[in-house]
Amino acid sequence: MDPYNTDEDCVNKCNLNGSPVLDRMSNDLNHTKNIDDIATPSELNFDQEFDYEEPEITEKKKEIEQCLKNPDIVNVDKWQSFARSKAGLISDEYRKVIWPLLVGVTLEELTDPPSLDELSTHPEYNQVVLDVNRSLKRFPPGIPYEQRVALQDQLTVLILRVIIKYPHLKYYQGYHDVAITLLLVCGDRASFPLLCRLSYGPTAPLAPFMQLTMQPTQHLLNYMLPVVRRADDRLAECLDKSGVGTMFALPWYLTWFGHSLNRYSDVVRLYDYFLCAPPLFPVYVTAAIVLHRAPQVFSCDADMAMMHCLLSRLPDDLPFEDILVVAQKLYEENDPTDLEPEVAALERREEEQRKLEEERMRRRRAGRVVPRAPLSSRLARYLPAPLRRAAPRRTILAITAALLAVYVYYRPDIFRMHPNEDK
Questions:
Q1: What class, spelled out in words, does domain 8-50+91-209 have in CATH?
Q2: What is the DSSP string of 172-208?
Q3: Using the 8-state DSSP alphabet, how is residue 244 labeled?
Q4: Which of 113, 267, 327, 413 fits a disulfide with 285 by CB distance 3.0 to 4.6 angstroms?
Q5: Check: CATH 3.40.50.720 for 215-358?
Q6: CA distances (Å), 330 to each of 61, 91, 327, in order?
Q7: In terms of pTM, does the model score above 0.85?
């Protein structure tokens, strides 16, 4: 499935048309380095975007550093408190240690990855490579070629390791956006067990996206509209009138906003929170964003295409600290269990509308059906006018058959199978 537009122009500019391995070979690199030597998390972060100078953040940094001196004795609640409070975990230097702790990764799980060649026979290999090549906007700007290639290889290996370990999980486009965020922050050894935790298990937040169909994902995304309605009924009516639905937010949910935000600092800040929040919390963040943009929604025409275009494009100046506070409040006031009847009613209405539309289309098609003319009438069009007027049906059929036999005799080639056609 392709829930969002890909960065084809960026791919074409970088001449990435196939496997990262082939790409590397084609550029005649005559030496090989260990991936970790080429691309370590500290080299590939974007910390230059962070600029927290408030006294409370300075104090928070000191407290985090103190806890990191003895991480094994720090309660997970403390790490979660750091992740949820203002500015989150502040720096990738802290995140690469704390993110695995938030989901319970142990030292025993930090194993070395296999080589890309060992995984290249997997059925999903080509699709994964294609999506990895499309994810260039998520790479550090100005990254040297060798580092980019190494990072692409790391990302491909990371994804394939997870879907090989859990073969019942289905890879989806957008999974690589989550994977690269974990990889950039934690490196290839820690990101694998971390991604496994997010992908497999009864409460794994990415597991619904990795089923045979999109129905589980769409069902969960439908919780957004009742949350919006409870907070702002007028806004919900405006959305309902436009018929925009929830598809504009699908890439947000599938990638934890990794695909849709331009600022790396915003992405990792959200991941700080999501890693220690309930699985459905990104949907509440989606509702909070829609509520934040209510003035723009009200000024937009109640047209589905225009509303989808407006909402699907996230501005760069969203105040995510405020949005996370609102989302947490929305979650506390609207427990998912309490929303289930409203979601069920919404899905019944959508199903009824779908059936009505299918019936309308069926009737429209049925109204356009014109009964076919008899064979003799259709064949008569190919006879001279005097014969059409005088000849009875049997004569028309006979004459047409004779003419066809003569044509085939002189042009037998049109009935021969082309040598390249399937036999």
A1: mainly alpha
A2: -TTHHHHHHHHHHHHHHHHHHHHHHHHHSSTT-TTGG
A3: -
A4: 327
A5: no
A6: 29, 27, 5
A7: no
